[in-house]
Amino acid sequence: MKKKDLKSEKDDIEKNNNEEDNEKDNEEDNEEDKDTYLLKLYVAGKTPNCLKAFANLQEICKKHLGDQYKIEVIDLLENPKLAKGDQIIAIPTLVRKLPTPIKKIIGNLADEERVLVGLDIKKSIH
Amino acid sequence: MNENLRPSNTSNILEKSLTGIVGLDEITYGGLPKGRVSLVCGQAGSGKSILSMEFLVNGIKLKDEAGLYISFEEKEEDIKKNMYSFGWNVDQLIEDNKLLLEYFKIDKSEIEETGEYNLEGLFLRLESAINLINAKRIVIDTIENLFSGFNNEAILRSEIRRLFAWLKEKNMTAIVTGEQGTNQLSLTRNGIEEYVSDCVIHINRTFSEQLSIRRIKIIKYRGSTHGPNEYPFIINENGISVLPITSVQLEYEVSTEMITTGIPKLDNMLGGKGFYKGSAVLISGSSGIGKSTFASTFANSNCERGERVLYLGFEESKDQLIRNLKTINIDLKKHLISGQLMIQMIRPTLIGMEEHLSRIYKLVSDYIPHVVILDPISTFNSISLKRDTQSMLTRLLDFLKSKKITSIFTYFQKGDESYENTSMDISSLIDTWILLKNIEYNGERTRSLYIIKSRGMAHSNQSREFVIGKKGIELIIDVDNRIKIKAKNIYEKKRFKK
To answer: Phi and psi (nearest 5°) for B336?
Structure first.
């Protein structure tokens, strides 16, 4: 996806509209093929914010990613050592492990628009 | 304070945790508040991290208290490297589970915020790290990095407040560092000092005459008295040294033992035996009058009696000094070889006063001399403010006296300077003061010597003429003798020519 963006930047402005349309098509094809979103949601127990974050995330994924996603919930109360790997400071934190690069969103994911921006999903829906 | 007013139950008194940092424990009267959070703030590069690291390392060494170091800025490897440079055996401490370094990365560029959150992840990580090594001391360096990592300041502030309370609850002796911004009105960039109620220490770094001066000040210390001033400190290869001025105490033991000046007739003028052991002697005079010669004569006679002498020169090179003294039959080289004498030449302009002081402390502590000579101390006036020079010399004198080391200071007196002004206001600390003076009379320059003061002994009020000849310094008691010596000198000169 990122590569496509860079490519389109290099292209002429005239071609831009067509290119974007193509990109959208390609993107959908790719997702069906291999672009599964691997998402890790770090929580600490069942606090209201953590529950909210999980509910919000499920809703957004269903709506925008079809079945091309996998959510893993990690409860740091049960296993605090896992916080180090992804450098978790804030709770809840959503980490997009795949596709790369890694992205992080903190908070209860209440704002759908921002979650989409944070996960880089928005562009494909554009 | 009236002893009766002190609480009888000592358990009520605030417990303190020694930092082991030279001088800091003195000005805090025993260290940082135990089980509480202290804030160390200052500009970038002022030495906050070093102070914090030393606090941890000393905690392990002195109290066997495991320490946890959290950095928001540097990776574990880099922290280690910083610690190596002070000669601390970091790897061993880590291996023994006494020290744990952790890097908490906060990269705003890869974080999006939406909705409410808290910093529970930070707490959980801290807790698991604390439990891993059973830490008693913790350093968080610098907590203000959180402000650059997260947008929601309201959440952040309440979480930091919660963190400080949490650390206290865990009974951790903590140092949190904060960076001072360009706004000098507040101690830290984000005003976190308002959350710390127990102990706030401020350090700053200024430049004077291109030399860096670091100072440390205790802003507040709840439940404890503390040194009220700004204290200079230095960072050298051993870490931090705060050098408090202790001379107010004047509590050293004095000696009644006398040691010869190396010039018998001068001994006679000083009550017959010379200087008191452990006293401070000042020799002042104009250029070329023979100050170094006097000091070296004293050094030589001490070396011959088997005492150790440390000679700190600030003007001549070592070889030059040895060569010059050889011409008057003083052989310093043999004392150097036998280890009775150590000569250190230091360029005064290269380093600041505090650095000088700490180097001299270290030299004295390592070499353990009986006599220390500083030649000349007037050089320091050229690199530093009079006030700083005075303070440094006061502390040095104090240090030497407390170790019962006899000290000789020479002072170069400018032509227009009256001797009363000479002393850089240290004359009150000097026990014996010898003034050397040139008197021009009858087409001839005559060197003369006065004893301005000499505490605790009957001393001569007369001025004495002296000559520096092949046999060293000789005082001339009567005119006949003087003529004899002169004649002898002329005779020897002639013989030499032949």
So the answer is: -65, -45
* A101 in B contact zone (CB under 8 Å): yes
Across the interface, whether the CB atoms of A107 and B115 are under 8 A apart is answered: yes
Rg, chain B, Cα only:
29
Are residues B426 and B283 part of one domain? yes
Tell me the CATH number at B144: 3.40.50.300
Across the strands, what pairs with A42? A74, A93
The distance of A89 to chain B (nearest Cα, Å) reads 4
Q: Are residues B28 and B176 in the same domain?
A: yes
The DSSP annotation for A82-108 comes to: HHHHTT--SBSEEEEEESSSPEEEES-
Same structural domain, B230 and B298: no
Q: pLDDT tens, B69-124? A: 999 988 999 989 888 888 888 999 999 999 999 999 888 777 888 889 999 999 99
User: Do B191 and B338 belong to one domain?
Assistant: no
* Same domain, residue pair B214 and B280: no
Q: Which of A116-120, B52-56, B403-407, B434-438 is predicted least confidently?
A: A116-120
Token couple for B249: 């105490």
Work out the pLDDT band at B417, boundaries 50, 70, 90: low
Percent of chain B whose predicted confidence (pLDDT) is above 90: 29
Segments making up each domain of chain A, as ranges: 1-35, 37-125
| Total number of domains constituting chain B | 2
Confidence band of B171 (pLDDT split at 50, 70, 90): very high
Q: Is the same domain home to B485 and B349?
A: yes
CB pairs under 8 A between A and B: 96
Catalytic residue among B76, B307, B315, B417: B315
Same-domain pairing of B165 and B140: yes
Mutate to test the interface with A, among B110, B112, B131 (most CBs of A within 10 A): B112
Note down the domain range covering B478. Answer: 258-497
User: Across the interface, do A109 and B113 touch by the CB < 8 Å criterion?
Assistant: no
Chain A residue closest in CA terms to B105: A87
Please give the residue that has the higher pLDDT: either A37 or B351: A37
| Token pair belonging to B355 | 């650095």
pLDDT at B251: 58
Cβ-Cβ contacts under 8 Å, A103 against chain B:
110, 112
- Collapsing DSSP to helix, strand or coil, A81 comes out as coil
Residue B117 touches chain A, beta carbons under 8 Å: yes
User: Cβ of A70 under 8 Å from any chain B Cβ?
Assistant: no
The Cα B283–Cα B280 span in angstroms is 10
Asked if omega into A80 is within 30° of 0 (cis), the reply is no
**Which strand (E) or helix (H) includes residue B292?**
helix B291-304
| Interface probe with A: pick from B114, B123, B155, most Cβ of A within 10 Å | B114
Give the least confident one: A48-57, B41-50, B96-105.
B41-50
- Give A37-125's CATH code, choosing from 3.40.50.720, 3.40.30.10, 3.10.129.10, 3.40.50.970: 3.40.30.10
| pLDDT tens, position by position, B61-82 | 999 999 999 999 889 999 898 8
Q: What is the complex's ipTM, to 2 decimals? A: 0.71
Minimum Cα–Cα distance from A112: chain B residue: B114
